[in-house]
Each structure stands twice: as C-alpha cells, then as structure tokens.
Amino acid sequence: IMWGANRRARWRQLPYGDQGLFMRRSCFLKVGGFCDWPLMEDYELVERLKTYAGFPHHKRVQGACKGTVPKLRSGVRRVQVLDTAVVTSARRWLRKGIWWTTIFNQFIISAWHLGVSPFTLARWYYRV
User: Fold this and answer.
1) CA distance 83 to 102
2) Alpha-carbon distance 81 to 33, whole Å?
C-alpha cells in the first residue's frame, strides 16, 4: 500500500491526508485551508495546492469551497515524499482487503469528480 501511495504522490502529485500533508501555514491559509466536509477535504485541498502551484486541475476544484484559487506564487514546489513514515490506521484496509478498499476509494474519487456531494460520499464511505 505504502509503495503505491508514494508513487501516486510523486508521479501524479496527489498525496492524500493519511500520508501526512506538511506545508507552511501561510500557504495553507492562502489557499483557504480545509473545506468543512466529512470526506474528500484532503483530496480537494491537494487539488487546490496543485492549482496554486500551476498544475492542471479538474474544473470542480476552482473555488470549490473557499472562493477562487490564488495565482501562482514564485517558490512553490512540487510535492516531496519524505523518507520518514507517518503512522495511520490500517483498520479499513485490514477489514475490507487491499483490492476492495483500493477499488472503492477510486469509485469515491470518480464520483466526486462527477459532482457527487462530499456529504453523500461520506454516507457511502462510512456505511460500507
């Protein structure tokens, strides 16, 4: 799991919150912080950060919960994957299995990109 998550973070510039997101407070505040959502708040924040850094983004991200995304600022860097581990819960992965959890998570992300509310997604996610 860690291998795949690290590859996704490096190649697609798409880390998720359970990998640990570190940034300067000023950057966090500049892009509007986390949305007050029960699910997808980490994914959406990373998408806004990518937009802030000048990467292409999905149209839903522009102003998703905090207004418009700020313009590119000099000195913004790509996502860096550190060698230090962040310990998070593996309960869902252990209970549901790697393949089922991966496929279901991709379904949730796809549904979000199709416009499904993060509140509806949370109901689906936590019911399963």
Assistant:
1) 23
2) 21
Residue type, 52: Y
DSSP 39: S
CA-CA distance, 7 to 26, in Å (whole number)? Answer: 27
Task: Output DSSP code: residue 16.
Answer: -
Q: Which of 7-16, 62-71, 99-108 is most confident?
A: 99-108
Q: Which residues of 15-54 are buried (b: 16+ CB within 10 A; e: fewer)?
A: bbeebebeeeeeeeebbbeebebebbbbbbbbbbbbbbbe
Contact in structure between 121 and 42 (CB atoms under 8 Å): no
| pTM exceeds 0.70 for this model | yes
The full DSSP string for 44-102 is HHHHHHHHHTT----GGGTTTTTSSPPPP-TT-------SS------HHHHHH-HHHHH
**Dihedral pair phi/psi, residue 102, rounded to 5°:** -60, -50
Q: Which residues contact 11 (CB under 8 A, 6 or more apart)?
A: none
